[in-house]
UniProtKB/TrEMBL annotation:
Species of origin: Camelus dromedarius (Dromedary)
GO cellular component terms given for this protein: membrane; mitochondrion
Compositionally biased residues, Basic and acidic residues: 603-612
Signal peptide range in chain numbering: 1-23
Domain of life according to the entry: Eukaryota
Domain Glycosyl transferase CAP10 stretches: 121-356
Location relative to the cell: Membrane
Name the record gives this protein: Complex I assembly factor TIMMDC1, mitochondrial
Protein family per UniProt: Belongs to the Tim17/Tim22/Tim23 family.
Length: 630
């Protein structure tokens, strides 16, 4: 009996000493209970929105359009346009018109892309779209005026629309994104592939951030990283405003990192910049847990994401960030569940720019652009007149057309990539040529001066050294310049001929390098007569063959030749221009006729009313008596 009692006592002691089953129940009684309870409450109150009929965005649309439910007068629209709070657009007969001036052409193009996708279903209207970073209509402004902005806070009346960065015009980050973030549809696929390569168990458990100092709210995380690098890896990178290490908190700027490489980490941070962050929608797709700092700034898709359900909310001053990081590290399964919910939500209901634009502009109170054009001159401001627009895009068919296109600047006044490559190669060749000719000449001139000046008398050793150095410098400049201009001209001619042949024939071939070498060699030896011309051509062709073979092999190894990439870019650009042309084709000359015909439709009704009014007038007594006599 005593043995049985002892065994029971031992069993109870064993149960008491055993650790609890791992999971949420373990943490419910621990110091993490506050966070666990917040997650549970958020999940209980969370109702996933339906992706049908754009219902995820209904609340955003209704709230933003509420101040304008009573309508928008022509006077109000004229005031918005005159204040230059954004870019003036008009939609007339399913065609899109825009004022000539746009502060950021690529941003306007990004917005127009999605409008043009749904323009066939939109009524005639007029609107002002702000492509700056900051909202334009504070709530203290009375009455509220209609301006579309991509981001805002609760202190503004701006109407939110999808940012241009879903297509193009995002922030340029040199050298990884020299033309800016864009093409959400393509970028999305890259991020999903990276996420598949880095499942949760393989991800680095260090919190990660790379970005420029567009807001001082990011400073505490950078300082925490320097204090505890195992917990957080956060550094500042350069941007266009960077001037010194003061802009990166006293340390050299870190290298920029591709967004696809962020997917290697479990915990990623999203901060506001000047306004809402452009990176937020990209971080969704990494399969990582996102720490979203602050809740002041919004984009159109933010309301469908809920704190503790899809991301970890962090105070703006980051006072709780260290505790939150320790919490997710101690509760890895909870962190993974939140990350997976975010990924599932964005995969099932990704931000849909064109759908949102259609649903937002459909009920937008209209001021018909045709009425503004037809109104008398006193009521029409200059900015409301329809400007002329893009000419029909021309797809270069012949080789001469493609060559001519090389020297045409784009909308942002940038030269073609081919010419930029030629300029860069020429500068590099000049520097290399100067070093090749100047450094040996410097050494030789110094040695020769020393040998020839043995009998000279100098005031002191410094005088002798300075004299030798001056002689060496003269040699460096003289022979460096001779080699520099020769190599610059040689490389420029070679690249110009090769690029011209590639563009003219619309393909990359080894024969182009051979011909370019022959032409360059011949021109360099033309001063020696016919024999020199032929010899130079042969030598140039022999040099062009291995150079061309090496360059083509490197391009093939990279998976895509330069010419193939340029053809793809050119084709995509032409398709985009043609698509825009279909919707924006100019019909300004026909507009007066259309307005007149629309006015004439109502003419019979007006005439009938006038006739009825005349019949109801009191008759002339004299005429009445006369009719009675007859």
């Amino acid at each position: 009996m005593q043995r049985w009692e002892r065994s029971q006592l031992g069993l109870w002691l064993l149960v008491l000493l055993l650790p609890p089953v791992p999971g949420r129940q373990k943490e419910s009684g621990s110091k993490w209970k506050v966070f666990i309870d917040q997650i549970n409450r958020a999940l209980e109150n969370y109702e996933p929105c339906s992706s049908q009929n754009c219902s995820c965005y209904h609340g955003v649309m209704e709230e933003d359009l509420t101040p304008f439910r009573g309508g928008i007068s022509r006077k109000m629209m004229a005031e918005v346009v005159s204040r230059k709070l954004g870019t003036h657009y008009q939609i007339i007969k399913n065609r899109l018109y825009r004022e000539n001036d746009c502060m950021f052409p690529s941003r306007c193009s990004g917005v127009e892309h999605f409008i043009l996708e749904v323009i066939g279903r939109l009524p005639d209207m007029e609107m002002v779209i702000n492509v700056r970073d900051y909202p334009q209509v504070p709530k203290w402004m009375e009455p509220a005026i209609p301006v579309f902005s991509f981001s805002k806070t609760s202190e503004y009346h701006d109407i939110m629309y999808p940012a241009w960065t879903f297509w193009e015009g995002g922030p340029a980050v040199w050298p990884i994104y020299p033309t800016g973030l864009g093409r959400w549809d393509l970028f999305r696929e890259d991020l999903l592939r990276s996420a598949a390569q880095w499942p949760w168990k393989k991800k680095n458990s260090t919190a990660y951030f790379r970005g420029s100092r567009t807001s001082p709210e990011r400073d505490p995380l950078i300082l925490l990283s320097r204090k505890n690098p195992k917990l957080v890896d956060a550094e500042y990178t350069k941007n266009q405003a960077w001037k010194s290490m003061k802009d990166t908190l006293g340390k050299p700027a870190a290298k920029d990192v591709h967004l696809v490489d962020h997917c290697k980490y479990k915990y990623l941070f999203n901060f506001r910049g000047v306004a809402a962050s452009f990176r937020f929608k990209h971080l969704f797709l990494c399969g990582s847990l996102v720490f979203h700092v602050g809740d002041e700034w919004l984009e159109f898709f933010y309301p469908q994401l809920k704190p503790w359900v899809h991301y970890i909310p962090v105070k703006t001053d980051l006072s709780n960030v260290q505790e939150l990081l320790q919490f997710v590290k101690a509760n890895d399964d909870v962190a993974q569940e939140i990350a997976e919910r975010l990924g599932e939500a964005m995969e099932a209901r990704p931000p849909a720019p064109q759908t949102f634009i259609y649903r937002a502009l459909g009920p937008f109170p209209r001021v018909f652009a045709a009425e503004a054009v037809a109104a008398d001159s006193k009521a029409v401001v200059e900015d409301q007149k329809l400007p002329s627009y893009v000419q029909e895009p021309h797809t270069p068919e012949s080789g001469w057309d493609r060559l001519r296109e090389l020297f045409v600047k784009d909308e942002q006044q940038r030269t073609s990539k081919e010419l930029q490559d030629i300029y860069r190669a020429a500068i590099s060749a000049g520097v290399i040529g100067w070093a090749y000719g100047g450094i040996p000449a410097f050494i030789h001139a110094k040695q020769r001066y020393v040998e020839q000046s043995q009998a000279e008398i100098y005031h002191n050793q410094l005088d002798a050294v300075q004299s030798a150095h001056r002689a060496a410098t003269r040699g460096f400049i003289r022979y460096g310049w001779r080699w520099s201009w020769r190599t610059t001209v040689f490389v420029t001619i070679f690249n110009t001929v090769n690029t011209g042949l590639n563009v003219y024939r619309n393909k990359n071939a080894l024969s182009h390098y051979v011909i370019a070498g022959a032409v360059t060699g011949s021109l360099f030896r033309i001063n020696l007569g016919l024999h020199g011309l032929v010899a130079g051509g042969v030598i140039g062709a022999l040099l062009g063959t291995p150079i061309g073979s090496l360059l083509m092999a490197l391009q093939k190894y990279c998976g895509e030749t330069v010419q193939e990439r340029r053809q793809k870019d050119r084709k995509a650009l032409q398709e985009l221009k043609l698509e825009e042309r279909k919707a924006r084709i100019q019909f300004t000359e026909l507009l007066p006729e259309e307005i007149e015909s629309s006015l004439q439709k109502n003419q019979p009704k007006d005439d009938a009313k006038k006739i009825e009014a005349l019949l109801n007038l009191p008759r002339n007594p004299s005429s009445t008596n006369k009719q009675d006599k007859d």
